[in-house]
Amino acid sequence: MIARRDNFQRVYDLRARVLAKMRVADAEPPSLDAMRRAFVLGGVRALGVTQARWIADYFRIGRRIKDVDLDAHVERGELLRVAVDGWKNPGYVHPDHRDACEAAALGRLRATHTTLLSPFDPVVWDRERVAAMFGFDYRIEVYVPGPKRTWGYYVLPILHRGRLVGRLDAKAHRADGRFEVKALYLEDGVVDDEALAEAISNAIGDCAAWHGTPEVVIGRCAPRAFKRLLQDAVKRRADG
């Protein structure tokens, strides 16, 4: 079993020794059915609202799940089956999120947060899901040869008030304390006003501070006019 991880490397040890350290050496291991149930329900809880075919990828549990596979969970009240505008297939919600689901159906759920997402964030990890939910085509291009990249090496999606409004290619120069936004691209139809610039500036600033690179430098932007708005917002944040 995996005993620990050193950086990105898995370190294995004998099963008996790993379980002994976990103090579960004498515990009866869960059945495959129990583990699969936990992964299915946990995946739906984490995803918020999802179609059946997107559930398996969250915990990488194998073959795609079908609606018929979830009938028993719905009958037992472990999952809620819901209709989602624009979806031909039903959606699924964990009962823990019933109140949020009902609020959303009544138009009472309002997103207010703006942040930069990791390429490995569950919001964008499943390319099919993010395209269906947000109309956002995304893939990480670190393994794509430089000349063939569309957006950049390590591109971060921009989540703004429940929408994916753009993406930016950034690099943290830790030795210099500098956070470089090499390029930023807004999605078609996004209103590039001062309010958006302020929100994105704060998200960039938070990310830069986390990296220990307080100086933010803005490079190319599309549309071009947004660069000035963003630079001004970055300056206001730096001035306090």
With strands numbered from the N-terminus, the spatial order across the biggest sheet is 5-6-7-8-9
User: How helix-rich are the residues, as a percent range?
Assistant: 25-40%
Please report which band the strand proportion falls in: under 5%, 5-15%, 15-25%, 25-35%, 35-45% or over 45%: 15-25%
User: How do the helices and strands follow one another from N- to C-terminus?
Assistant: EEHHHHEEHEHHEEEHEH
Radius of gyration: 22 Å
Alpha carbon gap, first and last residue: 50 Å
User: Could you tell me the mean pLDDT?
Assistant: 94
Largest sheet: 5 strands, mixed
The coarse overall form would be globular
- Kindly name the structural category: alpha+beta
Total number of helices: 9
Give the strand tally: 9
Which regions contain 5 or more consecutive residues with pLDDT less than 50?
none
What does this protein structure show overall?
The mean pLDDT is 94. Helix 8 packs across helix 9. The N and C termini lie far apart (50 Å). With 240 residues, this protein is of the alpha+beta class. A 5-stranded mixed β-sheet has the order 5-6-7-8-9, with helices on one face. The chain is globular, with a radius of gyration of 22 Å.
Summary keywords:
5-stranded mixed β-sheet, two-stranded antiparallel ribbon, single chain, 22% strand, 240 residues, alpha+beta, 9 strands, 9 helices
